[in-house]
Amino acid sequence: MKKTNSYLLLMLSILVIGIQACKKTVSEVSTVDYTVTVSYPDSYAQSKAANAKVTLTNSTTNSKLSVNTNTDGVATFAQLLPGNYQVSVERTLNASEAATLTGIETEAFLNASATNQLITVNGNLDLKLSGSAVGGLVFKQIYYSGSRTPANGIYLTDQFYEIYNNSTEVMYADSLYLGESGGSAKTSSTTAVFGFDKSAGNVYLVNVWMIPGSGKSYPIQPGKSIIISSNAINHKSDPAGNANSVDLGAGISDFEGYVASTNRDTDNPDVPNMELVQYGLSTFTWNTPVFGPSMVIFKSKNVASYRQLTEPGSTSSRLYMEVPGSVIIDAVEANANATAATHKRFPSALDAGFQYCSGTYVKEAIVRKVRTTVNGRRVLQDTNNSTDDFTVTTNILPKGWL
Ligand SMILES: [Ca+2]
Ligand SMILES: [Ca+2]
């Protein structure tokens, strides 16, 4: 018995020493408290990004720890083992969250990361989310109606197209195509309907321009726009201009359409020219129909391979570029009057409606409505229906607001 007791005592002692040794080992490895504070992009309505998933990956062990941010955008990693970590954050916004944060109701995926963070003491890391742009480039304003001179003459070289960054991120105008559909606006009951079949979803362009640049030469900030003018001069003060028109000179126009081949167009050296890709409906300077043009913007690397087609049912040899609807960024139809639905040139998936001015040379522009304002940035309405999305004004304000 005595021997057994001594043996048990010995075993107990070893056990106790062992436990104490273990305890000592654990308490000697000091941990740190680490936080990651996550914010939304500057263009968003709020800064603090709640419910973002923050993941710390230990560079040595590859073990991962994930914590969601609280309402202050803070993810807390308590008792973290010191070491080298890779930090990543992801946040998916559902359509309703995106609507609140960006003004545009569409799902968005945001992320952020920081590599090789040596974490040895208590601390915090700030990370700002970024991701795919919510929203895109849209036509903000199209001025096509022309104006009357003080002597009541007609004046139509003052047309311009304003393209707006309706997104949360910087976008680039480089290599953006601006295209004008073929087909006549409905000016009478006998006006021919454009002969192409719309059911395939394509558009058929008669004139096509491209903005130059090397890829990132022409940034457009969120909530900002560019002006593309047919002729980038101060039409009000130009000797050959029209005192009733608008100033579209340098500082207002970002690009102009210069038709070198006619030897009659004017080139303002202070305003970059667009590249003329296709000029099927040629006049000495580029004019779109004052009865209402149908315009698209698109980006594509395949323009050279797009089919060139004559209009079905027409004897004209004029060629139209067939551009697939899938590359169209924005499409806006204007036409002559309220009865012109029969003469739409675009598939309804690209623009379900159209807009019209009260007449020709009336100095009216069609202007996209403001849907909401987020953090000072106006978000324009884009339901792909110009009847709803646009309004008509006589107050022509390039880059301005009604
Ligand atoms: Ca011109
Ligand atoms: Ca120029």
Automatic annotation (TrEMBL):
Domain of life: Bacteria
Keywords: Signal
Signal peptide extent: 1-21
Protein name, entry field: DUF4876 domain-containing protein
